[in-house]
């Protein structure tokens, strides 16, 4: 729980990392740039990418969250900047890309981490407005940010990583529409792999298991509810944002140069693909 609190109180967001020389988790030099979107998990990814030597641009809808993340990561000596961006707004998406390229000179890696889930409950009870919001942010906006980034990513050979969920494979009853949106992201990865590969861009996804962040609070803040979820996780615990960050950094690195169109499950053993 202590470890979790650190991530709940630090809201980080979307970022776009630029080209730099850095090392992967096993200290082999490689060159790439990153883009990260998201909060707790996004923050961990931003930190990990920056620790690997990348220049990182973080972003989210709220300036104060962006500033908090930038302040924290800069205080750790990391090269991280931030831009406010609501991914549903085409002008703000363009501004995010423009600012990143202006700041760092290029953009090589994009991590699509921003997501929302305004409906927790029976899937048949979701409103059209809630459905639209889920699909607008998680699916449509991710695609159009990606589309805007491609002309930059293709310059040096780039990488795109979606942060999706094990719920794409095994939908959770209370988050049905969100689970469909996460399955759509995996479909998007598969649909894009040929087009992106032609532009020398690798597109992949990380399917996170149950990670203890504010996003998943409904699954762990009540003891008996948490226990029922824990019973479905062979590792017997919720995951940490850093455990998603490690694999995301690997996928974005040249160490993963032959991995295209894949979704890597990081789920503590949840049997997600039966
Ligand atoms: N936690 C889990 O158990 C879990 C499991 C599987 C997959 N995931 C996935 O992991 C990713 C990160 O989740 P998390 O647990 O770290 O949740 P989180 O803390 O709520 O992160 C979501 C982030 O997205 C940003 N965001 C939301 N809407 C946005 C928009 N329209 N434009 C720009 N930014 C927006 C939020 O920042 P602002 O509020 O400041 O905009 C926040 O930083 C999500 O894609 C989620 O689906 C999480």
What does this protein structure show overall?
With 274 residues, this protein is α/β, with parallel strands linked by helices. It has a single domain, classed as NAD(P)-binding Rossmann-like Domain (Rossmann fold, 3-Layer(aba) Sandwich). The chain is built from 9 helices and 10 strands. It has helices at residues 2-9, 40-51, 63-75, 90-104, 128-156, 176-198, 217-220, 223-230, 241-252, and strands spanning 15-17, 20-23, 29-32, 35-36, 56-60, 80-84, 109-112, 158-165, 201-208, 263-266. Strands 4-1-7-8-9-10 form a 6-stranded mixed beta sheet, sandwiched between helices. The chain has a two-stranded antiparallel ribbon with strand order 2-3. A two-stranded parallel ribbon has the order 5-6. It is globular and about 50 Å long. Bound molecules: NADP nicotinamide-adenine-dinucleotide phosphate (NAP). Residues 11, 13-14, 38-42, 60-62, 65, 85-88, 113-116, 137, 163, 165, 208, 210-211, 213-216 line the site of NADP nicotinamide-adenine-dinucleotide phosphate.
